[in-house]
From TrEMBL:
Residues 184-220 form the SOCS box domain. Pathway: Protein modification; protein ubiquitination. InterPro entries: SOCS_box, SOCS_box-like_dom_sf, WD40/YVTN_repeat-like_dom_sf, WD40_repeat_dom_sf, WD40_rpt, WSB_SOCS-box_domain. It comes from Calcarius ornatus (Chestnut-collared longspur). This is WSB2 protein. Pfam families: SOCS_box, WD40.
C-alpha cells in the first residue's frame, strides 16, 4: 500500500546507496560522507559507524552470506568489512592502469562510483571514473579482469552470475560477460554456515583457530 514504516536518521548528506544483508538483519547506508552507517533491521537503530575512508562513501554491498560488507569511496578504495565486529579485513586500491597518468590527478580519475558482489560471493565488480569496469577475486589484491567503459555510475551482477549490468551518465545500460566460477566445497560450506552464524558465534565454536579464521574470512 506504500505506507511508510520507518525512517532512519543519522546522515547529513544525500544518501547515495543502501544495501540490506541477505539475512535481513542489517542495513548499510552510504551518503557521501567519510563513514558508512550500519543499522539493525530488527530494532531500526544504529549499530555503528564504519570509519576508514578518506573521502565520500558512495556505494556498499553485502556478500551473499551476509558475512562481509564492502564500501566504495571517492578516495579510490574499496574496504571490506566484517559487519558484525566493524573490523576492516582488506582494502582494494584502484591504481591507474596506465603508469603515465599524472599522479596529481590519480585520486580524481580513480574515484569509485559503485561496487557489488557476485552471486557466489567470490568476486567483486567496481566502476570508477578512470573509465574502467574492474572485476576482483576476493583472495587477490589486484583485478582479474578489466573492461573499458565511460561515464559509469553503477554495476550489478546477474543473479545467476556470468554477466554484469552497468549504468552510465549517457542513459545507457550495458552488459558485460564476467568470469564464471565453480565454488569449492570449502567455500560452499563456509557460505552455508555463515548464512546463519554471526562472527561471534563462529568464534565461540570449539574448532581449531585456523578453521575459525577461514570461516570469518580472515584467510582467503
Amino acid at each position: 500500500p506504500g505506507r511508510q514504516v520507518q525512517v532512519l536518521s543519522g546522515h547529513v548528506q544525500w544518501v547515495y546507496c543502501c544495501s540490506i544483508s541477505p539475512d535481513c538483519s542489517m542495513l548499510c547506508s552510504a551518503a557521501g560522507e567519510k563513514s558508512a552507517l550500519l543499522w539493525s533491521m530488527r530494532s531500526y537503530t544504529l549499530i555503528r559507524r564504519l570509519e576508514g575512508h578518506q573521502s565520500s562513501v558512495v556505494s556498499c554491498d553485502f556478500s551473499p552470506d551476509s558475512a562481509l560488507l564492502v564500501t566504495a569511496s571517492y578516495d579510490a578504495c574499496v574496504i571490506m568489512w566484517d559487519p558484525y565486529t566493524g573490523e576492516q579485513l582488506r582494502t582494494l586500491r584502484h591504481v591507474p592502469l596506465h603508469s603515465t597518468l599524472d599522479s596529481s590527478s590519480e585520486i580524481h580519475t580513480s574515484s569509485l562510483r559503485s561496487v557489488c558482489f557476485s552471486p557466489e560471493g567470490l568476486y567483486l565488480a567496481t566502476v570508477a571514473d578512470d573509465r574502467l569496469l574492474r572485476i576482483w577475486a576476493l583472495e587477490l589484491r589486484s583485478p582479474v579482469a578489466f573492461a573499458p567503459m565511460t561515464n559509469g555510475l553503477c554495476c550489478m551482477y546477474f543473479p545467476h552470475g556470468g554477466f554484469i549490468a552497468t549504468g552510465t551518465r549517457d542513459g545507457h545500460v550495458q552488459f558485460w560477460t564476467a568470469p564464471r566460477v565453480l565454488s569449492s566445497l570449502k567455500h560452499l560450506c563456509r557460505k552455508a554456515l555463515r548464512t546463519f552464524l554471526t562472527t561471534y558465534q563462529v568464534l565461540a565454536l570449539p574448532i581449531p583457530r585456523k578453521l575459525k579464521e577461514f570461516l570469518t574470512y580472515r584467510t582467503f
